[in-house]
Specification:
- The chain contains 6 helices and 47 strands.
- It is mostly beta strands.
- It has a 22-stranded antiparallel beta barrel.
- The relative contact order is 0.11.
C-alpha cells in the first residue's frame, strides 16, 4: 500500500508537467500565399484564430509563423481585395509547410480598395481600375484620364488623352500592352483630330504607372511608363455602354485553359465640338475593334494573341467665329468668316503573338512578335476673313485674310521580335530580354500659310509676294534597332525590416546614327520593422530618349521656303534622374488613408528643343540644349467618405533649359499642378454614386508661331476644370435573383463637363497688322456640357 501511495503521489506530480509540456509544444509553420495566376500576394495577413499571434507575408508571398497548441487550430489568411481563407490543422506538431491560393473578391466594397492596399516597394504603382466605366470621360480613353489625375501628371486639353509627366513632352511616355510597346499617330496636331487610343479600358485588368525612376526592362523614354495588362475572363461576361459621345461593346469568355475577349468602340465628339467658339459642320467619326485571345494547351505552354484595327476620320467645315479676349479695361473682339474644309484620316493596325513556356516551377521563356502600322493623312484648305476691333471704342486694330493649306501624308510600319526569360529563386527575381525592331516611315508633306493684312501680304517686302510660312518634307527612313536588358529584384526580410532592391541595365544600338546606349538603373524600397505603415523609396539611373521620326526632322529655310531634312548625326537625349520618396499609411476617424510624396531631380543633356502648338510638337532636329527639372509630388489617398476611394495630388515643378547661351523655361515648365478625384454615395443608399474630377494647372510658356523658344516670353492662363458624374444603379442583380439572370447590373449616368463654364486655352492664333504688331487671340476649349450614359453589365 505504501508503494501504491508513493506511485500515486509521483503520478499526480507528473500530470501537470505532462499537460504543460503539451501546451508548450511549438509549431513552426511556413508557406507561400499566391493568387490564381500564381503571383505572390504580398503582405497577406496570416493569423492563428483565437490567438493574438500573427505575421505578414513578404513581397514574395512567403511567410513564417510560430505558435503553440495542444489541439487543432485554424489559420486565417486575409488580404484586402481577396476572399479570406481558413485552414484547419489537426493536432499540428513540428515543422509544417502550407501553401495557400487566394481568389480575388468580386464584392463591390472590396473592389474599390484592392489596388491601393498593395504596398509600393519600387517606382511603379498599381492604379485602381474598378470604376473606369463609370467615370466621367470626355475622350473615351478612361485609362489615360485616370493617369492624368496622378501626382506628377498634367494635361491641358480635355479633348486629348495625351499627358505630360514631370516636365516631359507627350513623346516621352512609354506605353505597353501585355509587354508590347505601342505608339501614337505622328501627324495629329489637335485634340479635335484625336480619336480612341489603343488601350480599351473594358479589357484592362491591371494598370501600372511610373512617373520616373522606372526599371531597366522598360524602353528608352525619359519621362514615364504606362504598363497595361489585359484581363483573362474566367466565365461569360460582357457590357454595353452608350452615351451622347459614343458606344462601347464588350464581350468575353474563359475557362481554366482558354479565354477570349473583344471590344468594339465608336466615338463621336461632335456634341463636344459644338461648344467651341468656331461654329461649323463637325463630322468626327472614330471606330475601332480589339480582340485578346489566351490559350493554355498544357500547364507549361501559353499562347497570347492581340489584334487591333481602327479608323479615325475627322471632317470639318468651319463657318464663323467670334472671340472676346483681353482685360476688363481693354476688351478686344476677333471675328472670322471661314471658307473651305479639313479632312483627316488616321488608320491603325496592331497585332502581337506571344508564346510562353514555363521552365520548371520558377522559370519562363517567352517569344513575342508584334507589328504596328499606321496610315495618316491631314489635308485642309481653309480661308478666313478676320476683323480685330476694340470693343470699348471704334478703333479697328486689324482687318485681313489668311489662308492655310496642307497636304500631309505619312505611313509608318514597325515590327518587333522579343525574346524574354524570367526566373525566380530564393529571394531573387531575374528578368532578361533581347529584342529587334524594324522601323519604316515614309512622309510626303506640304503646308503653307498666307496672311494678308489691310491689303498687304505679311511679311511685306514691296517687291514680291511671300507667304508667312511654307514647308516641304519628302523623306523616308528604314532602320533597325537592337536592345537588351537584364534586371534583378532582391527581397529580404530581417529583424530590421523588409528590403527590396531592383538593379539592372539596358544596352541598345540604332543603325541610323550608329549610336550605342548604356542605361544603368537601380531602386531601393524599405519597410522598417518598427513602423510597418511607412515605406521608403530611392531610385536613380541614366535614361535616354531615342529619337523617333519627328525628332529627326531638321529644317532649313532659304528665300522663305522651309525644307525638312533628316539629321543622321542626331543623338539621343539624356537624363540622369534621382527620385526619392515614400508612403505612410494611417487611419483618420477609423478610415484608412495613405500619404505619398516624391522628390525628383533630372539633369538633362543633348536636348532636342521643340515648340508646342496644341498637340503638335515641332522639334529643332538637333541636340543644341541642356536643362534640368526639379520638383516635388504629393498625394493623399483614402476614404474621405466611408466605403469610397478619393485622392488629392499636388505637384510643384521647375523645368529650365540653356539654349543658345540663354536660360529659358522649357515648353512644359509648370510651377504647380493640382488634381482632385472624389467619390461619394448619397446618404442612406449605395444606388447613387457621385464622381468629381477637378484640375488646376499653371499655364505654359508660349510665343509667336514659327519662331524659336527664345521668343516664348508669355505664359498662358491656368487650366481650370471641374467635371462631375452622377451614377444611379437601376438594377443590382449580383446574386442572380432577378430575371433575366444574364443581366448583372444596369447603371444610368449623367455627366456635367466643365461645370463652372471656365474658358481654357488650347493654343493661340496670332494676328499681324501692317505695322507688324502682333496680337495673340486665344483658341478656347470646350464649354459647359451635359452628357447622358447607360451601362448594362452581363
Amino acid at each position: 500500500m505504501r508503494s501504491i501511495g508513493i506511485f500515486y503521489i509521483i503520478l499526480m506530480m507528473c500530470i501537470p508537467c505532462m499537460v504543460n509540456a503539451q501546451e508548450t509544444n511549438v509549431v513552426q509553420l511556413k508557406g507561400r500565399v499566391v493568387d490564381e495566376n500564381q503571383e505572390p500576394v504580398a503582405f497577406c495577413i496570416v493569423k492563428v484564430e483565437g490567438q493574438p499571434l500573427g505575421t505578414t507575408a513578404d513581397v514574395n508571398g512567403h511567410y513564417k509563423l510560430s505558435f503553440t497548441t495542444a489541439d487543432s487550430v485554424a489559420i486565417l489568411y486575409n488580404m484586402m481585395g481577396y476572399t479570406p481563407r481558413r485552414r484547419v490543422l489537426k493536432n499540428p506538431a513540428g515543422n509544417l509547410t502550407l501553401n495557400i491560393t487566394l481568389k480575388q473578391s468580386d464584392t463591390s466594397m472590396q473592389e474599390v480598395t484592392v489596388a491601393e492596399t498593395k504596398r509600393q516597394m519600387g517606382s511603379t504603382q498599381e492604379l485602381n481600375t474598378k470604376d473606369l466605366q463609370r467615370m466621367p470621360s470626355t475622350t473615351g480613353n478612361a485609362v489615360e484620364e485616370l493617369v492624368a489625375t496622378q501626382a506628377g501628371v498634367s494635361t491641358h486639353n480635355e479633348l486629348s488623352s495625351q499627358y505630360n509627366v514631370r516636365g516631359g513632352s507627350f513623346d516621352e511616355n512609354c506605353v505597353y500592352i501585355n509587354g508590347v510597346e505601342v505608339y501614337r499617330p505622328l501627324l495629329i496636331s489637335s485634340g479635335q483630330q484625336e480619336g480612341l487610343s489603343v488601350i480599351n479600358s473594358n479589357m484592362v485588368e491591371k494598370v501600372n504607372f511610373s512617373a520616373g525612376g522606372f526599371e531597366a526592362k522598360y524602353g528608352d523614354k525619359m519621362s514615364s511608363v504606362l504598363d497595361i495588362t489585359y484581363a483573362r475572363p474566367t466565365k461569360w461576361e460582357g457590357s454595353v455602354q452608350a452615351s451622347l459621345l459614343g458606344t462601347n461593346l464588350y464581350g468575353g469568355y474563359g475557362n481554366k485553359k482558354f479565354s477570349f475577349s473583344n471590344g468594339l468602340r465608336y466615338k463621336t465628339n461632335r456634341y463636344m465640338l459644338g461648344s467651341l467658339q468656331t461654329n461649323g459642320e463637325y463630322k468626327p467619326s472614330f471606330l475601332d475593334y480589339q480582340a485578346f485571345l489566351s490559350w493554355m494547351p498544357t500547364t507549361k505552354w501559353q499562347v497570347d494573341l492581340i489584334a487591333y484595327i481602327s479608323r479615325n476620320n475627322y471632317d470639318f467645315k468651319p463657318k464663323d467665329r467670334e472671340t472676346n479676349f483681353g482685360t476688363l479695361e481693354d476688351v478686344k473682339s476677333f471675328k472670322v468668316y471661314f471658307d473651305g474644309q479639313e479632312k483627316d484620316l488616321f488608320q491603325t493596325l496592331f497585332g502581337t503573338l506571344k508564346l510562353t513556356r514555363k521552365i520548371g516551377a520558377k522559370g519562363s521563356l517567352s517569344m513575342a512578335a508584334s507589328a504596328f502600322s499606321t496610315h495618316e493623312q491631314e489635308t485642309y484648305d481653309i480661308q478666313g476673313q478676320y476683323w480685330l476691333d476694340e470693343t470699348n471704342g471704334d478703333e479697328q486694330l486689324g482687318v485681313g485674310t489668311y489662308m492655310e493649306h496642307a497636304r500631309n501624308y505619312l505611313n509608318s510600319h514597325m515590327q518587333t521580335i522579343k525574346l524574354a526569360y524570367d526566373h525566380t529563386w530564393s529571394s531573387h527575381k531575374l528578368q532578361t530580354g533581347l529584342s529587334w525592331k524594324h522601323e519604316q516611315i515614309t512622309e510626303n508633306s506640304r503646308e503653307w500659310e498666307y496672311r494678308d493684312s489691310s491689303g498687304y501680304s505679311v511679311p511685306h517686302t514691296a517687291q514680291d509676294l511671300q507667304v508667312i510660312y511654307n514647308l516641304k518634307s519628302v523623306n523616308d527612313i528604314n532602320t533597325n534597332h537592337l536592345e537588351m536588358y537584364a534586371q534583378d529584384t532582391y527581397r529580404h526580410e530581417s529583424k530590421v525590416g523588409i528590403l527590396s532592391v531592383n538593379y539592372g541595365a539596358r544596352l541598345s544600338y540604332w543603325n541610323w546614327n550608329n549610336e550605342w546606349l548604356f542605361s544603368p538603373r537601380a531602386s531601393i524600397g524599405f519597410v522598417p520593422k518598427d513602423c510597418e505603415n511607412l515605406t521608403l523609396r530611392l531610385a536613380t539611373g541614366m535614361y535616354y530618349q531615342r529619337p523617333f521620326y519627328k525628332e529627326l526632322r531638321d529644317t532649313t529655310t532659304q528665300d522663305g521656303n522651309t525644307v525638312v531634312e533628316l539629321n543622321k548625326q542626331i543623338k539621343s537625349q539624356r537624363s540622369f534622374q534621382v527620385v526619392t520618396g515614400g508612403d505612410y499609411k494611417f487611419k483618420l476617424s477609423q478610415r484608412p488613408f495613405k500619404f505619398s510624396t516624391e522628390l525628383y531631380y533630372k539633369k538633362q543633356s543633348n536636348l532636342n528643343p521643340y515648340n508646342v502648338d496644341n498637340l503638335k510638337i515641332v522639334y529643332y532636329g538637333n541636340n543644341c540644349a541642356t536643362g534640368y527639372v526639379i520638383g516635388a509630388d504629393m498625394k493623399l489617398y483614402g476614404e474621405f467618405v466611408p466605403g469610397t476611394d478619393s485622392w488629392i495630388s499636388v505637384g510643384l515643378m521647375k523645368a529650365n533649359m540653356s539654349l543658345n547661351g540663354r536660360s529659358i523655361p522649357q515648353p512644359t515648365d509648370q510651377l504647380y499642378n493640382l488634381n482632385f478625384f472624389f467619390t461619394d454615395y448619397f446618404p442612406g443608399t449605395t444606388r447613387w454614386k457621385m464622381t468629381l474630377k477637378a484640375c488646376i494647372a499653371d499655364g505654359l510658356p508660349f510665343g509667336p508661331p514659327h519662331t524659336g523658344l527664345e521668343k516664348n516670353a508669355f505664359r498662358s492662363t491656368p487650366y481650370r476644370r471641374v467635371d462631375i458624374g452622377m451614377n444611379y444603379r437601376l438594377l443590382n442583380n449580383e446574386e442572380r435573383r432577378l430575371r433575366p439572370k444574364a443581366i448583372k447590373n444596369v447603371w444610368l449616368g449623367v455627366d456635367c463637363f466643365n461645370i463652372f463654364g471656365l474658358n481654357n486655352v488650347s493654343s493661340y492664333f496670332w494676328v499681324t497688322d501692317i505695322s507688324n504688331h502682333q496680337y495673340a487671340v486665344p483658341n478656347y476649349l470646350t464649354g459647359r456640357m451635359v452628357n447622358g450614359r447607360i451601362l448594362v453589365e452581363f
